[in-house]
């Protein structure tokens, strides 16, 4: 079988039309160029789409053959080459299957691999590093968002005594601050320290509601959720920055925010579950957490001037819909 090819001598860009044959163990070129080379001394490039294949000679010259099917037939007839690799590279079905496998692998890594790595990393992180991160975070918050607590000393003392009973000597510490910027809330640092804001203590109907929120924060501390989120954010940020290359920091951070939201909801549910157990141990009904959540929800609606926070905003909502949490806590105390 004779194929049509274009010959280049490797010294100039001048092209020569030639006829190409494979016979008696030799590649033979006929036309303005006559050449005969043993098969073993000629390298053949792989079949990649519509790109002509090359017969590469040792002296730098080469011959391009655009008839892939014809060249495949010649090689097959001569028993010279297994073309399974080329078939895989040029198969549309194989390409689609490979893309689907890549998507499944990426989703699996995000849904199961990332949480597992973050959880293991949070458990294995040296305590010295955890304390340093927590202290730095608290210093930053104190400079920018937090102010000294103005709760009466007697109220702080009662809350501290109740908290010690709730924590049951697990090493957690309670700090008091205030913040007009954050509003009624409590924060858990990666090392387990919990910051109670005056605004929450004032909003709560009694100390049991404060204790209910602190039980929820103890769930975050017990599960080392703060560290998990830090590790997840760092890993997602690294992947985003690598994927986006030289894009701005804003573009690199956006995917992290979007991807992180689902995990935040999962951790909130875990913290609710832990709170139910701890509150039961000290004789406080889980419904007290539901009560204070409703009150916080009302304040947030007023502060934001938007739709009720109790309504779920979908996948971007960083916490479970407040109504869902309240219903679970009041139904049977099992988030």
UniProtKB/TrEMBL annotation:
**GO CC list:** membrane
| Ranges annotated as biased composition (Basic and acidic residues) | 322-335
* Transmembrane regions listed in the UniProt entry: 94-114
Q: Does the keyword Ubl conjugation apply?
A: no
GO BP field:
proteolysis involved in protein catabolic process
Q: Keywords for this entry?
A: Hydrolase, Membrane, Metal-binding, Metalloprotease, Protease, Transmembrane, Transmembrane helix, Zinc
Has keyword Membrane?
yes
* Family, similarity comment: Belongs to the peptidase M48 family.
Matches recorded under PANTHER family:
METALLOENDOPEPTIDASE OMA1, METALLOENDOPEPTIDASE OMA1, MITOCHONDRIAL
Name of protein: Peptidase M48-like protein
Naturally occurring in which organism (per UniProt)? Sinimarinibacterium flocculans
